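Lab meeting prep.
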Amino acid sequence: MKKVFAFLLFAAVSTLNACKESDPPLPDNVVQFESAEQGMDAATKESTIKLKLSRAVDAATPITIQVAPTGITYGTQFTTTPATTSNTLSLTVPAGSSETSFKLTKADNLFLNGAETIGFTIGSAGSPVLVGTTNKQTVKFTSIVSSGTNLTLDGGTGGASAVNAVFVDLSNNAQNAAKRASWDLGFYSGTDFRVILNNMTGASAIALAKNDLTQVTAADTVGLSLTLGFDPSGLKLVDDVTGDLTKTVIPAISATDADNKVYIINRGTSGATPAKGWVKIRVLRNGTTGYTLQYAGIKEATFKTVSIPKDNAYNFRYVSFDSGALVDVEPAKARWDIVWTGAMYKTSDGTNDIPYYFSDQVLINTLGGVTAAEVTTSTVSYDAYAESNIATTTFKSDRSVIGANWRATTGTVGVKTDRFYVVKDAAGNVYKVKFVSFTTQDGGERGKPKLEYKLVKKV
């Protein structure tokens, strides 16, 4: 019996060793830029340049970047963070990470003719990382029209409840991340006077009959419910989920101060947003060019005031109750096409629409003039879609035309491969966009979706 057991043990070990010997080696881990070209127009002061690796590194890995400016001088007209030494940037990919980055900043009051460029070249990478094919990136100090690239969106930490919203400018190969919970109210810069709640956190609000903030106390909140739940009535507490500015919880701000009521705001707890105390607010017009926000905690007898000027370069200007100041959220309206984020939307309970918070929504910049269409591969494949197909593509101004339709979280989990999207930016450039991955089931990482896009028609 002992001989039989020994023989079986030897056979099992031999089999395991054979399996180990036959396991294919991991592919090379390469580092490269997200794109070969990036635009930085006059309105953009700072850009983040990212380098991506095929997979995370086990130990901190050094990367060097050679910097070659043309027509622009380091130190006086632009800088980098970290700073260069002898025209070389030294970066580190932290252990457990698959990316690194640096910042490029223009000097204040800098006037350029648009011909200036900076060439960045990966000089070396610490073993075992190898330098990939997209080892050079040229930054042009003007708007560009990208021919397309691949992007991994930086949702930050949180996975399915990623903390960032990521705004993407297809033509400039650029993405800008902003914390979803970094703002509370958005103030419209268009001709109307509109104020939006933060539907990225599921914020809700309700009007009081009073128009004097100092007369509102905790007693005014007795019996009030700002919990959305899965009830159709919850949709009345949030801004129109399709983005219709005529259907905001806070109506158009009146030129007659007495008509502007006090609102109680629940700052939202959706998408893993920590609960915060309710706030009472009142908004007035500040002449014809802006707003005056009054706000305070429910139990506070006095209130703070913030002035918000309109800026036509932006869809909205944003205010945070935490800082009591304007905060940067979305880029200028001409500098983004789509945003990936978690946000309040709606679903059906079988009879009625009810509020529902969706992760991984992709919204288009309808206020900035962007339109889009969903195309099924049964009509035409992504690779085959060409300029000749544009005439039969129905572009929509529905900001949720992409929405969460591009991925599945039940059944066959992952990116839906039976569809892609066509996006027409405000200038008229047309791009086809397909999502590559977004979760472990399709080879991706939740909170950091990958997408590919290509230019179909250049204006």
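Slide two material, second protein:
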Amino acid sequence: MRDMKAIGVIRYSRRERLSREEFEELLRSAGYEVLAVLEQNREEHPRYNIGRGKLEELKELVKELRPDKVIFANRLTPSQAYNLWKELRVEILDRWQLVLEIFEKRAHSKEAKLQVELASLQYEVPLVKEAIRRIKLGDRAGFKGMGEYQTQQYLKHIRYRMGKIRKELERVRADRGVKRKRREELGFLLIALAGYTNAGKSTLLNALAGESVEARDQMFTTLDTTTRRFKLGRKRVLLTDTVGFIDNLPPFIVEAFHSTLEEIVKADIVLLVIDASEPWAEVRRKLLASIEILRELKALDKPMVIVLNKIDLTNDEDVEEKRRRIMEIADELAPSVRAVVKTSAKLGILEELKRALEEIIPSLPKYRRFKILIPSTVDPGKVLGLLESIGEVLSVSYGDEVEVEGLVQVGMIKELTRLGIKLEHPSNEAH
């Protein structure tokens, strides 16, 4: 099967942060041969998105290059997509249809496939409604060649299917919630990897957890949530990789991937991964986009570490300058950021990140300071080992009973008392 050929169109304006390099990478990730990219600087034209003069230029390119599709880096309204098709007589896609095509290629698990299907159907609803409106105006023959009755029935089918998918995803979400609760009961800390697509999150997960999860130098490699154990001293830590962000992530994708993105919201710590090897303008754009998505998810209050990854692809001076600028942005927009650290997941340079996590963990809200009394009938070595894995031992005094000052996860109190251990005088503040 031959590669599909496409002409790209990108319209820059004050309202949208768009990158030609990222757009071309999206096209390649979806499997298109890029014949040309047409660019324009102007505010949105209500009828065609681009101006009429640029539309005439695009018409000539279509006649000359004969692409399979014309793909816009901008979001098109249903009316704009129809008007462009009428003028060009070639299939028209916009940025989010392009992203959804990539998602379809990358989805492997049942959950990921359902999430992609839900997002695609949500996107299709306004297109079908526009088709019905056009039919009534006598302007075109239905949606994908269907007449008015067939198009109306198709709209009903979409809504029925969306309802069914949402119920299935709700079951997945409930099951994930049960598993998460069980992990917390076992004293695991939950750390989520978040960040812009292709920042190196999967490679970082592999480096920390000693795994071999698929990690490629391409956009949206990870759509399926992956959770692995991560050794941080004697602590019980679980690391979860999540779907990558992209600028102006639309609400219908956020909703469709809610059960996956919820892992960020429920995490104890968020690692926001940034590709430090890119030019500062790109680093800043992607950082701001990621912060905005975390704000939409209501996850900006989580303890966060910004991870400057891929430092092996640049120099120390460049990384330090970017770190300084990022800290300035974080102070203003993301005050929950506890540290900005340097890593190279590819080369296993992880020391700064591990030190930052070791410093942050004792201050997490789930930890409280207790005096712990271990009776003579209980093996103190076993209890101290358990405490080190689920909390932190601050001091130990030996007598008839072993007395320990330490930090304990609140969720583990029942487990400790079940072992015959006494806990006294919890502090009102985490340390």
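Talking points for slide two:
The two ends are 61 Å apart (CA to CA).
The mean pLDDT is 87.
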